């Protein structure tokens, strides 16, 4: 656009041609998805969906795109003992600070949240997980942590099956077989708890003078909590 | 983020040696006091001949005055002065099981502007930082599009570019403070946040090229690191997995999104997603997938692991809230702050930073009396959308106890909440998006402490 505008300008005539060029460009912009998005050509390559397929390892919450294959609880137990238990615990209780597979039962989790006591330290697949296909997705893409993405599809289905069995997910008995049709049907205990945020939830006002009466209740750090702001001090100390 | 984050007394925290770290803190502050003590003596005391002598000694003995310095390119990629060696990212050992799925903090107490130097940008990994070869890296854009396409990094650099300054904040910034005061340090209360000038290709440019189907209401990015991290991002008309509409507040941020290859004018650092990353200004940082390899346009959310377990809020009604995407207005006083002791009575400048994921900062107010009375601070230009804004206010410290705090208001009229207000709606298990007013207590001794005001 700027090129044609410039050359017309340079000729110093055909004002009508300038107007025409500009209005054509404006028209082209108006029909595009985004007014600020310029047209780009000659960059990048077209590719087919078939060529991308091996790259698309995302399994949706409802089971969309789950792969063919299957796995069992018993096969999963062997994989779990060898490749997962060292971090997630023999019984899914978590080890060395790594996440638990098994948390508080969901009603207890809810009760803790309502009582304002610590609920999040005791999260697991049984109280903070909405959909079984997401579990398959997570394990297949990112676990075991030291060698992510190395499980075969059947191994991933098996260990997914096993950790759900470990967390007593209803319906996942010892003989359960995990595959792309069975996983979406599982009802995770916490599924009904998930809600979507609806926007800002506080409404403070910009008070400037005498905003409250009385004294403020000031809480400092409990003496029992270790000091962590040591990096710089360490430096000074050792210089 | 680890569950440990909001435990007031983490297992093992004390084992690290409170005694020795307290000693270090004491030593550090004594050093500061000694240096400052000289200054006070020189300026405030009439018969401080000894003090004045110490004060003027450097004038007669400047070690760099009669020597030659280093030649050009002796340090081909420049580094900070050796005297600034303490200005570094830090982590908190007990917070995560290891440093691979972990976080580090930007030292805001030592920074003076709104731009975070690239080497100090906070880090957050779900499977560690990786070195991706830009020659071999590809970005695929596909899904509900007319023509799926694949791009090299050079392709992206050739396209029309977009540059803008924006903050990037982990929604867990401040997470350790939900249940009570835990970190006596600005670096650890607010360091999961940085601000840079970002350069890349606008997402809308790529959308135009592949011809995104208007029926596509979500897209997601995916990284090529071990976590292959993926997050669903809503567009106009998006509905959640229950069929409920996503609030319009969250469905237009993607229009500012870009695929970035540069920060602060140079290539992204490996820690921040080299060679390319997604960046969605105003949204919690987790959606801005690093090491970006794939963008897929779809018509429903994936409801990924990150959206299920990590970046959710457990509310006081027992529900688990998803898609709290925007970092709402926030601010903090960066000086004075607990990382430094006051250097005697007299003139100071209260300084700080404010930001909002909804747009520009409109006002920052400062209180030095526990929030009873407030004075509007001066905003330092530039004041940009979804960007840190620096603020200042002169302050005379008379040596008494002060509870100082800042309160940001953004251009939508949203006012940063108090901790009490935030806890009333979010409870104590929320972990994420703790944007409440931060209070520092200046003690008579000059110590500055992180405190919480519980009742107002």
Explain what this protein looks like in three dimensions.
- The complex is a heterodimer of chains A (239) and B (456).
- Chain A has 239 residues and is mainly α.
- Chain A folds into two domains: 3-46, no CATH class; 70-193, Cytochrome c-like domain (Cytochrome Bc1 Complex, Chain D, domain 2, Orthogonal Bundle), CATH 1.10.760.10.
- Helix content of chain A is 37%, strand content 5%.
- Chain A has helices at 2-11, 15-31, 49-52, 73-83, 85-88, 106-115, 132-142, 153-166, 231-238, and strands at 45-46, 70-72, 177-179, 194-196, 218-219.
- Chain A has a two-stranded antiparallel sheet.
- The longest helix of chain A has 17 residues, at 15-31.
- The termini of chain A are far apart.
- Chain B has two domains: 93-321, Sulfite Oxidase, Chain A, domain 2 (Alpha-Beta Complex), CATH 3.90.420; 327-451, Immunoglobulin-like (Sandwich).
- In chain B, helix 1 crosses helix 2 (49-60).
- Chain B has 456 residues and is an alpha+beta fold.
- In chain B, the strands form six sheets. Chain B has a five-stranded mixed β-sheet with strand order 4-3-12-7-8. In chain B, strands 5, 6, 9, 10 and 11 form a five-stranded antiparallel β-sheet that branches.
- Chain B is globular, with a radius of gyration of 24 Å.
- The longest helix of chain B is centred in the first third of the chain and has 27 residues, at 18-44.
- At the A-B interface, strand 1, helix 6, helix 7, strand 4 and strand 5 of A face helix 1, strand 4, helix 5, strand 12 and helix 6 of B.
- Strand 1 of chain A pairs antiparallel with strand 4 of chain B, so a sheet runs across the interface.
């Amino acid at each position: 656009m700027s090129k044609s505008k410039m050359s017309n300008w340079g000729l110093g005539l055909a004002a009508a041609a300038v107007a025409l060029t500009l209005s054509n460009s404006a028209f082209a912009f108006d029909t595009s998805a985004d007014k600020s998005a310029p047209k780009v050509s000659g960059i990048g390559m077209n590719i087919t969906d078939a060529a991308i397929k091996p790259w698309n390892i995302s399994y949706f919450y409802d089971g969309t795109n789950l792969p063919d294959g299957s796995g069992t609880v018993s096969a999963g137990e062997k994989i779990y003992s060898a490749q997962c238990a060292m971090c997630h615990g023999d019984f899914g209780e978590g080890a060395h600070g790594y996440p638990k597979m098994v948390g508080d039962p969901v009603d207890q989790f809810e009760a803790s949240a309502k009582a304002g006591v610590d609920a999040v330290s005791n999260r697991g697949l049984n109280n903070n997980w909405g959909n079984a296909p997401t579990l398959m997705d997570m394990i297949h893409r990112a676990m075991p942590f030291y060698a992510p993405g190395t499980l075969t599809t059947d191994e991933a289905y098996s260990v997914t099956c096993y950790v759900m069995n470990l967390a007593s997910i209803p319906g996942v008995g010892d003989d359960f077989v995990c595959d792309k049709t069975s996983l979406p049907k599982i009802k995770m205990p916490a599924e009904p708890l998930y809600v979507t945020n609806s926007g800002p939830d506080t409404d403070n006002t910009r008070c400037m003078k005498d905003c409250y009466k009385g004294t403020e209740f000031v809480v400092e750090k409990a003496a029992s909590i270790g000091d962590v702001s040591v990096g710089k001090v360490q430096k000074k100390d050792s210089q | 983020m680890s569950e440990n984050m909001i435990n007031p007394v983490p297992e093992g925290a004390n084992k690290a040696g409170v005694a020795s770290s307290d000693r270090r803190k004491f030593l550090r502050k004594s050093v500061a006091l000694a240096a400052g003590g000289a200054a006070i003596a020189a300026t405030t005391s009439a018969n401080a001949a000894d003090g004045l002598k110490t004060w003027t000694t450097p004038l007669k003995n400047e070690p760099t005055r009669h020597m030659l310095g280093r030649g050009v390119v002796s340090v081909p990629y420049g580094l900070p002065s050796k005297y600034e060696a303490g200005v570094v990212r830090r982590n908190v050992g007990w917070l995560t099981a290891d440093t691979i799925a972990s976080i580090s903090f930007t030292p805001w107490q030592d920074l003076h502007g709104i731009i975070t130097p690239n080497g100090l940008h906070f880090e957050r990994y779900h499977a560690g930082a990786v070195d991706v070869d830009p020659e071999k890296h590809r970005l695929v854009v596909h899904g509900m599009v007319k023509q799926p396409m694949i791009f090299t990094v050079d392709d992206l650099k050739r396209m029309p570019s977009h540059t803008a300054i924006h903050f990037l904040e982990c929604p867990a910034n401040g997470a350790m403070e939900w249940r009570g005061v835990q970190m006596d340090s600005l670096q650890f209360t607010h360091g999961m946040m940085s601000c840079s000038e970002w350069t890349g290709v606008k997402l809308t440019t790529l959308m135009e090229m592949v011809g995104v189907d208007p029926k596509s209401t979500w897209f997601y990015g995916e990284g090529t690191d071990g976590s292959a991290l993926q997050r669903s991002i809503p567009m106009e008309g998006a509905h959640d997995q229950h069929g409920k509409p996503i609030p319009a507040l969250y469905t237009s941020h993607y229009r500012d999104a870009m695929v970035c290859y540069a920060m602060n004018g140079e290539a992204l650092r490996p820690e921040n997603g080299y060679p390319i990353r997604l960046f969605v200004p105003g949204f919690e940082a987790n959606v801005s997938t690093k090491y970006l390899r794939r963008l897929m346009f779809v018509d429903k959310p994936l409801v990924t692991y990150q959206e299920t377990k990590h970046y959710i809020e457990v509310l006081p009604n027992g529900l688990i809230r998803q898609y709290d995407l925007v970092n709402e207005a926030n601010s903090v006083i960066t000086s004075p702050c607990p990382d430094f002791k006051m250097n005697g009575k007299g003139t100071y400048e209260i300084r700080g930073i404010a930001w909002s994921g909804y747009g520009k900062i409109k006002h920052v107010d400062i209180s030095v009396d526990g929030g009873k009375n407030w004075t509007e601070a001066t905003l330092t230009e530039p004041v940009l959308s979804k960007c840190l804004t620096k603020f200042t206010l002169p302050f005379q410290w008379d040596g008494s106890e002060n509870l100082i705090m800042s309160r940001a208001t953004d251009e939508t009229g949203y006012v940063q909440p108090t901790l009490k207000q935030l806890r009333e709606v979010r409870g104590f298990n929320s972990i994420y998006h703790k944007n409440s007013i931060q209070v520092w207590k200046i003690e008579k001794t000059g110590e500055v402490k992180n405190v919480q005001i519980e009742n107002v």
